Structure formats: structure tokens, C-alpha cells
User: Which sequence fits this backbone?
């Protein structure tokens, strides 16, 4: 009876699943928002959101937690993309949290605002009364994330309790919460880093320039290349030098390392990632190196 | 390239972590920094071998206790397919995790230790896999190296399991003798077992046909979200009204006559929209937006189907329930929230017919309640009609979850066996 084999490609299956998740949130929550950092995962998530509600505009605002230490190229990209979509952007500022005395800036050469973001994020969620917050995290990124639900419950303190997660069956998501609680929603849970790049290529999506190879003043710390910038505390024993690099992930300048690379096109990036033997967070993120369970501990506090 | 989702059931003792580790390692899905971290941790703990379970056991408590608590999802790809592994713990106290992992799986791998043969837990894994209607089942008879790669031992296990599986009406069943530790029949055919003529495990995973496992016959489109742009600038968009959702069954085409539930009114599909433009057909698991010829009052939770092929609009539902709550029990008169496709209603437990012993399949008709990880047959009455099929016919329109009104926790999973 069937004339053909109804096979669906991997990217189409992942996209259909992500669209379903986004519509489910838009239908069942009062005040969702989408975390948009200008990084590749949130760029893909934003494209999926555009598709999910087309021809209507995206029915929720975007939010960026700005550490004040972001790459200028990424902030420029963020603002341009938001303007193109005519979306509403909420910027939650870590600097403002510091000024208000909500958090205390770390000192010393390893000072980073990475952990401070959690307070800024949770304050913004409370202030705007967001009840669902989309994040671009993927399960292949990190072992604690591999155990997290697509709809991940957060209590009034924004905490994640890994031992008390709601079972998630079929494509049925429990969206019930009480006032003050919220759900973090991860539509790209089942995507891998390579899926994200293949999707960016297929869709012809623009990404910030720092993902491509460029010459940059850097210095070396713990085997990572950090950008030589006024926001990163460089020691006397850490001389700067010029290198041909690109960024594999985009986070705060103080804890995101560059990788030596000559890849100037998406195809070359895909070739490079297909051949690499190091995970993206292992190669580029000082924030995950603190301990074996660094991510789990931050997530429990309410981190992304 | 398509996706195969598979669940693995077994314990560390069966070599499950070793098997997954080998699949990931041989397909280059384990990276050097991950392997180094695992080697370092294994060394620190004085383990003599590299404990690959540390790759999947990501939570602090799991590492401390050396057990798998929750479902871990793992990813790898070969040039033929992308694979999503739902790695589930095998012990009876984690039945709910296995049920969760199996709910979306196209295939399940059950590991058996060749020395020990078919154990109580193997039977339980097979039962749960069948209950969740995982379309393909692989019995991986592991540690063949420890039984001298004996064909007779493999045949003995195959016969014993086949006899048991016939009681379950298990679907597609494949037996593969392997040694996860040495890699026999995992990625490539083993020279140690020339008597085995089937394919290696990976070859089987790459080639098992799954496209027709989806229901492509009964058109089921649960309306998820109504798209109304209300555009002031474009006249065309001003009147646009689309019904967005993910196809749960059948093939929809423009021009098809369809029926709307609960109204029972018929209309015609005028277009199937996506961001890329209109498409000529839609089938599971596509997420699309339907435009219809007539102005019918349609909202989230409604169902689009064919006039001559409708789901049951039911408020009396019989289902097999897997109870997942710690503390709270399911018993007659329990009131719960039920979520089925895109429709949420309230449900009253009218009757608990029996509790099933998942090891022996014995039905205990005197049971008064279901506790954590227990499975039983239940009758429910719902406040609104749900548009349901038997779970055996369609997993998406036959499955539901139960939510506790007091705690908002997901407390049960249901598979519909009868409805009216």
C-alpha cells in the first residue's frame, strides 16, 4: 500500500522534535523566554523558534545574561539578529548585580563572572516572572547534562535536584508548576555538536565571526588560549602572542579558550570537528575544569 | 542518515557499560579528554581497569555509590545512522527509569551473561520492553569468551528465552552472541564464533528497518497550537489561521477530507505549511501547520483524523499503569491529572483490576494499591473525552502520563488497552 519508504533524516527528526517542544511551551506557559547569548546553540534554537510559529512572530521575548565580559563581535551579532527578527530582548546585567550588591566580584587573575551569572539570571527570572526559560544546552556536552530532562523543573530558589527529576515519557511533557517555580526547557537536548554545525550549514544561518579562524592576541593558561583583553587578568608570567585561532564555544572572555584553527568556512569547521578527539567543553571551558562535578554543582544552584 | 533510538537494559555485571563504552569508543564518540578523566578517576579509586561506566554515570551520587540511578542519554553516529542510547539501570527499583527509556526506543538491547543464562531480571527487561511496545528486541548474549564461545550454550539460552518470549508476543527478536570486553561480534563478525552466521551488533543496529514501525495508516493529528499572526500589514496574513502540531499517525495530504474531534465536523486540508513553504504530505514525526477549508472552532487538545478512521472518543479507559511515585500510592478513588497527546484532563481511578508481578507475570487480583515501580491494570474515568487508540496500535495516541495534583509530580505512565 505504501509506495515509498517514509524515512526522515536525522536533522529533520531533531528539528521536528524541537519545534514540538517550543509549541508545547508556548501553549502551556504564561510567560516563557528564550536565552539568547549569540552562541551557536542559541542561534540554532532561535531559528527553530522562528520556524515553530511562522508566519506569526516568535511569541516570547529573548533574554541575554550579559557578564560585561562578552566578546564585542558577539554582542554586535546579538543586537543585529534581534533587530532583524523584531524580537524583544531583555538584557540581564551581571555588572548591575554587582553594583546593587547582589554579588561580589571575584578578584585575582582567575577572577571570572561565570558563577555570578546564576544570581543575575535567577533575579531576572523572578523580576520578569518568567515561568519557562529555553536554554540551548545539549546532553552530549557534559555528563551532568546527559541526565537532565528536556523539561527540567526548578524550585523557588531556581535549584535543580538531579535525584528528584520528573520521569519523561514519549513526547509528553509535564508543565505543571506552582507560583515562583519555573521550568528550564532544552529543545536541543538530543543534538550533538556536529548536528548543530550540520544544521547551521543546511540552513545557511549566519554566526558571529569569532567562530571562524582569525588572528588574535592571546596568552596561554592551563593549556588553553585566552584572549588578551582588558577584562582578563593576565600575569607577568603569561606573555601575550599572536595566534591564528577560532572559538569552538562562545562564553565569557575570562573563561572561554580559543583553539588553534585555520577553518574559515562552515565546511572546514565540520571537517575539523569530525576529526577532533577533544570535546568542545574540554577544549575551551575553564569553568568546567574546577572539579569532576563542576557542572552538576553549578546546575544545582540554578546555572544554565 | 536517519536516527535509531535504542535502550539498553542490564547491570554493570552483565557488561552493559563495557558494551556501550565499546560502541562509543569504536565509533569515535568518546573523546580523549573524557577517556583521560575516566582513567584518572578509575586510578584514583584503585580500580585496576578503566571503568567505562564512569562515562555514563554522570551524577555525583552515582559516582560515589558506583551505581546508575537515572536514564543517561548517549550519542554516536556511523556513516549510516545517528544513534541515541537511553542507558537505563537494570535493577527492579529502577523499573520506572527503564519504562521511561523504552517509551521512545525503536529497539532494546537486553544483555545476558552467557554463564548465568536467562535470569529473573532478563525476563523482567523483556516484559517491560514488550509492554512499552519497543518494536525490535536484541538479546545480546555477552561474555561468550567465558563459555569458550560455545554454540551449544548460546543455543540453550536462545531456546529458553524464545520459550519465554512467546508468552509475551514479543515483536522482532534477534539473538547475537558477543564478548563486549574483547569486541567479538560487536562491531565486526567474530572469528572466534564461525558457527554464528548473523550480523554483528553494530551492523544490526545500522540496518534494522524502522521506517515502517511508525503508524502510517491511521491519520492522527493532535492540535497543539493555533497560529494566528493577526498581521496589520499583510491582508493575507491577517486572515491566516493554521493548526500546528506533530503528526502522530498516518499520512496527510492537501485535498484530503478530514474530520475534527470533538465536533465531528468534516472539512478539507487546503495546505500543509512549514517555514520552508507548503509541503505535499506530512507524516510522523513531522511538525507542520495545517490550513483547513472551513471555519470550524478548533483549539489545542482537539484531534484531526479521517472520517472513516477515527480514534475512540473515550471517557472510560482501561490501561496498564506503571506507577512512578515515591510515597503516594495509586488506588481506587485516586484523582489525578491525565495528559494524553496535547489534551489535559482529570482522571478518577475507578478500579484496580490486578497488580502484575514483573518477574513472574503473575496477576495479583487482591492488590489494593500500586506502589513505586509497580505495574497493574486500571480503569479510569476522565472529565473530558480523550481521543485514543490502543497503545499496541499507536504509541503516541495510546500512551499518557499521570500527574499528582498536589505535588505536580509525574506519578504514572499509562498504556491504553481498551477504551469506550
Assistant:
Amino acid at each position: 500500500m505504501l509506495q515509498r519508504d517514509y524515512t526522515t533524516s536525522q536533522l529533520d527528526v531533531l528539528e521536528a522534535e524541537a519545534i514540538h517542544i517550543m509549541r508545547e511551551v508556548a501553549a502551556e506557559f504564561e510567560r516563557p523566554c528564550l536565552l539568547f547569548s549569540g552562541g551557536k546553540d542559541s542561534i540554532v534554537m532561535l531559528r527553530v523558534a522562528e520556524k515553530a510559529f511562522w508566519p506569526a512572530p516568535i511569541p516570547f521575548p529573548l533574554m541575554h545574561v550579559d557578564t560585561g565580559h562578552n566578546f564585542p563581535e558577539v554582542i554586535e551579532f546579538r543586537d543585529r539578529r534581534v533587530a532583524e527578527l523584531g524580537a524583544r530582548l531583555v538584557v540581564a546585567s551581571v555588572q548591575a548585580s554587582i553594583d546593587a550588591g547582589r554579588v561580589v566580584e571575584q578578584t585575582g587573575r582567575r577572577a571570572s563572572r561565570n558563577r555570578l551569572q546564576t544570581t543575575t539570571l535567577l533575579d531576572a527570572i523572578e523580576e520578569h516572572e518568567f515561568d519557562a526559560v529555553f536554554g540551548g544546552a545539549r546532553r552530549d556536552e557534559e555528563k551532568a547534562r546527559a541526565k537532565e530532562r528536556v523539561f527540567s523543573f526548578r524550585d523557588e530558589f531556581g535549584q535543580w535536584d538531579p535525584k528528584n527529576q520528573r520521569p519523561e515519557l514519549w513526547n509528553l511533557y509535564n508543565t505543571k508548576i506552582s507560583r515562583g517555580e519555573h521550568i528550564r526547557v532544552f529543545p536541543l537536548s538530543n543534538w550533538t555538536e556536529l548536528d548543530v554545525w550540520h544544521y547551521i550549514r543546511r540552513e545557511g544561518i549566519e554566526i558571529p565571526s569569532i567562530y571562524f579562524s582569525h588572528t588574535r592576541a592571546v596568552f596561554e593558561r592551563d593549556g588553553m588560549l585566552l584572549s588578551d583583553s582588558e577584562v582578563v587578568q593576565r600575569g607577568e608570567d603569561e606573555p601575550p602572542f599572536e595566534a591564528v585561532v577560532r572559538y569552538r564555544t562562545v562564553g565569557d572572555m575570562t573563561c572561554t579558550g580559543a583553539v588553534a584553527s585555520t577553518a574559515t568556512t562552515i565546511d572546514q569547521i565540520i571537517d575539523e570537528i569530525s576529526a577532533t578527539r577533544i570535546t568542545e567543553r574540554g577544549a575551551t571551558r575553564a569553568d568546567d575544569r574546577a572539579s569532576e562535578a563542576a557542572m552538576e554543582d553549578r546546575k544545582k544552584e540554578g546555572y544554565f | 542518515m536517519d536516527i535509531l533510538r535504542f535502550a539498553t537494559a542490564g547491570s554493570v555485571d552483565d557488561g552493559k557499560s563495557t558494551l556501550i563504552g565499546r560502541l562509543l569508543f569504536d565509533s569515535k564518540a568518546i573523546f580523549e579528554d573524557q577517556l583521560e578523566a575516566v582513567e584518572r578517576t578509575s586510578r584514583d579509586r584503585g580500580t585496576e581497569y578503566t571503568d567505562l561506566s564512569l562515562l555514563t554515570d554522570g551524577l555525583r551520587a552515582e559516582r560515589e555509590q558506583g551505581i546508575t540511578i537515572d536514564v543517561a542519554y548517549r550519542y554516536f553516529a556511523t556513516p549510516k545512522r545517528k544513534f541515541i542510547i537511553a542507558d537505563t539501570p537494570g535493577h527492579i527499583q529502577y523499573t520506572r527509569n527503564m519504562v521511561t527509556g523504552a517509551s521512545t526506543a525503536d529497539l532494546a538491547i537486553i544483555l545476558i551473561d552467557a554463564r548465568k543464562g536467562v535470569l529473573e531480571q532478563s525476563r523482567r527487561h523483556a516484559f517491560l520492553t514488550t509492554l512499552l511496545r519497543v518494536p525490535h528486541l536484541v538479546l545480546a548474549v555477552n561474555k561468550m569468551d567465558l563459555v569458550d564461545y560455545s554454540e551449544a550454550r548460546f543455543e540453550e539460552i536462545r531456546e529458553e528465552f524464545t520459550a519465554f518470549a512467546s508468552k509475551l508476543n514479543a515483536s522482532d527478536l534477534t539473538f547475537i552472541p558477543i564478548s563486549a570486553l574483547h569486541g567479538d561480534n560487536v562491531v565486526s563478525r567474530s572469528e572466534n564464533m564461525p558457527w554464528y552466521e548473523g550480523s554483528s551488533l553494530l551492523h544490526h543496529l545500522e540496518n534494522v528497518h524502522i521506517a515502517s514501525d511508525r503508524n502510517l495508516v491511521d491519520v492522527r493529528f493532535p492540535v497543539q497550537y493555533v497560529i494566528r499572526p493577526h498581521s496589520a500589514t499583510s491582508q493575507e496574513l491577517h486572515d491566516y489561521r493554521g493548526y500546528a502540531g506533530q503528526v502522530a499517525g498516518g499520512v496527510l495530504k492537501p485535498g484530503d477530507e478530514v474530520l475534527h474531534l470533538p465536533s465531528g465536523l468534516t472539512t478539507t486540508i487546503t495546505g500543509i505549511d512549514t517555514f520552508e513553504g507548503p509541503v505535499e504530505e506530512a507524516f510522523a514525526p513531522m511538525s507542520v501547520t495545517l490550513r483547513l477549508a472551513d471555519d470550524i472552532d478548533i483549539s489545542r487538545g482537539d484531534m484531526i483524523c479521517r472520517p472513516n478512521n477515527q480514534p475512540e472518543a473515550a471517557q472510560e479507559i482501561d490501561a496498564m499503569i506503571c506507577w512512578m511515585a515515591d510515597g503516594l500510592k495509586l488506588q481506587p478513588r485516586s484523582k489525578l491529572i491525565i495528559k494524553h497527546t496535547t489534551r489535559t484532563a482529570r482522571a478518577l481511578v475507578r478500579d484496580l483490576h490486578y497488580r502484575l508481578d514483573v518477574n513472574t507475570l503473575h496477576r495479583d487480583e487482591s492488590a489494593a494499591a500500586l506502589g513505586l515501580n509497580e505495574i497493574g491494570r486500571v480503569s479510569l474515568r476522565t472529565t473530558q473525552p480523550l481521543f485514543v487508540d490502543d497503545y499496541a496500535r499507536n504509541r503516541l495516541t495510546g500512551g499518557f502520563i499521570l500527574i499528582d495534583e498536589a505535588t505536580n509530580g509525574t506519578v504514572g505512565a499509562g498504556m491504553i488497552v481498551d477504551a469506550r
